[in-house]
Write a structure and sequence with these properties.
- With about 325 residues, this protein is an alpha+beta fold.
- The protein has two domains: about 220 residues, P-loop containing nucleotide triphosphate hydrolases (Rossmann fold), CATH 3.40.50.300; about 100 residues, Beta Barrel (OB fold (Dihydrolipoamide Acetyltransferase, E2P)).
- The strands form five sheets. It has a six-stranded mixed beta sheet with strand order 7-8-9-3-10-11, with helices on both faces.
- α2 packs across α3.
- The longest helix has 18 residues.
- The radius of gyration is 24 Å and the shape is elongated.
- It starts with a strand and ends with a strand.
- The chain binds adenosine-5'-triphosphate.
- The site of adenosine-5'-triphosphate (ATP) has 13 residues, from β2 and α1.
- The site of adenosine-5'-triphosphate has 13 residues, from β2 and α1.
- It is an enzyme of class 7 (translocase).
Length: about 325
Amino acid sequence: MKDLSINLSGNQVIKDMNFKIQKNTLTTFLGPSGSGKTTVLRAIAGLNQKIAGKILLDGKEIQNLAANQRNIGMIFQSYALFPNLSVFENVAYGLRVRKESNAVIKEKVGAILKTVNLQDKKQSYPENLSGGQKQRVAIARAMVLEPKILLLDEPLSALDAKIRIELRNQIREYQQRLGITMLFVTHDQAEAMAISDEIIVMDNGKVQQQGSPLEIYKHPQNIFMAKFIGNHNILETGQLRSLGVEVAENDKSSFIIRPELFQTNMTGDSDDYIVVSGNIKNISILGDRIEYRLTSDNGLELKAEFLNQQQTFTVGKAVKFYVRKGDIEKVGF
Ligand SMILES: Nc1ncnc2c1ncn2[C@@H]1O[C@H](COP(=O)(O)OP(=O)(O)OP(=O)(O)O)[C@@H](O)[C@H]1O
């Protein structure tokens, strides 16, 4: 994608975006509502009227091709199945349009229904399927055409939490097993982290950062990223100095301490740690973890998270928490 800009009704919704995705990987667009994720996906699929910039697929420019000449598949949140066609015929539809023979259709549809574990539903109609099954039909219908890239726009958001997790893992498994290039849109961080090779974080029509889930979590490039991904404590220079960390007084950076990096004991050389003494102000049980909000003796409000099997504290208790100096991440603006 080179210098992509898109105006919708006079609004510049996408602003000079540049990014690359690798073949046979799963890349996710992650960003707040309105950041432009769907607009970029539609541009790749050829569903936007007018764009500026270049879209290259396998080194060839495709931005001027009609949608049906791009060999790109797209899956939406609403499954968009044909209600009057069986599961088999829904999946076979695109192959029939391509005038494939009945023998080829039978073989390809059979194989893909096996992949998505719906062989025994091939005669069923969409109204008799669960939401997760309908979405698997939609995925099979797109995959059977062997698109060069499969675009998935919030495909799981209509499903309940448990099915959503199951299906996201299945999508990742199909992608890896069949070696498909997928571009997935979500605003759910956990979903993006769980299934992606790479995440492209968007805000306000621009790429904020692209990298592996671990890279973007551990090394946010700017303050937006630090705030957007995961839970965080953000300290300014003076606040960090008040905890005894040597930082130049005129350093304008911000410093991030992820709450889960606090420890209740030092496990190495004490010179490598900062010590935060304070009192527990508030406790939130997060399920597998507990979040403590504490007020430090020098007046900072900080969050610390621990697995809940570890030692637990009560509100008002005086505590000492430790964090490795090397775990404090410095970020620019
Ligand atoms: N047809 C349109 N005319 C004018 N502005 C539009 C149009 N469609 C979308 N927009 C604006 O473009 C911006 C990006 O929209 P887009 O749907 O791509 O965001 P998104 O990141 O996919 O959001 P969501 O997660 O809510 O689906 C939004 O500010 C939206 O209001």
